[in-house]
Amino acid sequence: MGLRCTVYGTRPEPPPRKPYTVHRTPLSPMLSDFTRVIELFQLPFMQRALMGGILTGLMGGLLGSFTILRQLSFFSDALGHSALLGISLGLLLGMSPSSVLLPFAVLFALGVTYLLERTRLWTDALLNIVYSSSLAIGVILLTFVGQYKGGINSILFGDILAVRQGDLIVSTVLLVVCVVFVGLTLRSQILLTLHEPLAIASGIAASAHRTAFIVLLALVVGASIKAIGVLLISAFVVIPACAARLLSRTFTGYVMLSAVLGALGAVLGMVFSAMLNLPSGPAIVTMQLAIFLVAIVVPRTRLTAV
Amino acid sequence: MSAEVLVVEGLTVYRDAYVAVQDVSFSLEVGTDTAIVGPNGAGKSTLIQAILGILPRQSGDVFWLGHSLSRRGALNARVRQQIAYLPQNFLFDRRIPITVNELVALGWDDLGPKLPWANQKQRRLAVRQALERVDALHLGSQPISRLSGGETKRALLAYCLVRPRRLLILDEASAGLDVRGESDFYQLIYQLKQEQGWAILQISHDLDMVRKHCDRVLCLNRLLRCQGTPDYALSPDNLVSVYGSEFVRYRHQH
Lengths: 306, 254
Known about the structure:
By secondary structure, chain A is an all-alpha fold. Helix content of chain A is 77%, strand content 0%.
């Protein structure tokens, strides 16, 4: 994880230059950082990481806008944490994490939904049981696997720099599915979010919609785990949506802004990570936090007058 | 077509293990105003939610405009559109960002899959006209979180009005309004009822209002205790059977 890669000799045109360390002179630290970032983003793995971040940011923001209003934020968190169980199960069975994660996330989400509907316990308490126990079992299973090449750190915090072409294709397809689904059913989704009995009385099949949304959310979380890690994935769902909520008046504007802020957070985070040589997942979440804090301050000065 | 907007036959609804509504039959005719009265916990809201398909029913049949409501709550979409429903204490989460225009527009759409920008012009026009009729055009771009109780009710009426309906179902629609707000609200409702030719089915605790406006009363206390004109259904004897003798003595003293 992180960006501790050696960049020497990887640039395409080689004008004779001093090594990077020399660029970090006190005279022009900003400029040297900037050129360094530009150079880094010419590397294919950085471009893939950036693409992956943007795709995850868009999907997380889009579905996140509904997730937080339907009070499913903690559900996405539990889904993320439990992915560790999926990964270790996959490793134990000798399968690659990527191929296990999507089906595991969907099955897990449906199972948890069933459990929530069956028992009369508080949602947050039940989700706590689900995610802490799946973390525990996941870690125990990992001890039987032996050495996982990525290490537990990359499972917990993700490794966005290891995003491959295939991951990008999966994410792109998923983003298209999300946009089409939310776009075509936008009014039903709004009504369901606003008042479920009213939605049913208007003829919306509420439980089918609920299941479809949860499956989609599980797929997005499952597809993004590898890059973002099980601990931080829910930030992609929750933080941009909350920032967008603070800045929006209309529902449609809110949904779109949430997706845009998700992507913006990813871009800023990748640049931040490249500049300061920081692990990329945490860098993106930090930038999302920065956007959220700006959103808290902005409406008081500007939007309240509108 | 028959003159009945709604026919309910032998409806029984369970909530968990107990019977909330038992063997209830009644029908609503076009353009009439029917009130459901009864004490708290009598199953009034349960009855309404079951006939709308929001709650599952144990047994019985429900016909809307001659179309049967399926066991799983499915109903012909065209029939659905002719029914407007205002739930009890429409307490939506005020943190949800949505403007009055957007809320009212939700009542206009039929809810099949479609592009978000389809029929934009007609939708805007319908929303405008509906808001005009409830005297709330100025509220259109307001977020719902900023509305007062009375303004919220008017916005919701616009949601009902935005498309022609045959029947309006109100579950204690005036709850949360003060005396003045309530009287304004009912004045608006009855004015619109005249204009639109709505039939109304409402749950009410205000027996004086029911006496004044309604054509028929259903007295519910799990079972349908009596039904008929307000004079008959709200006679002291019938009230005793629905509310118990304590309540009736109380009402006579005040």
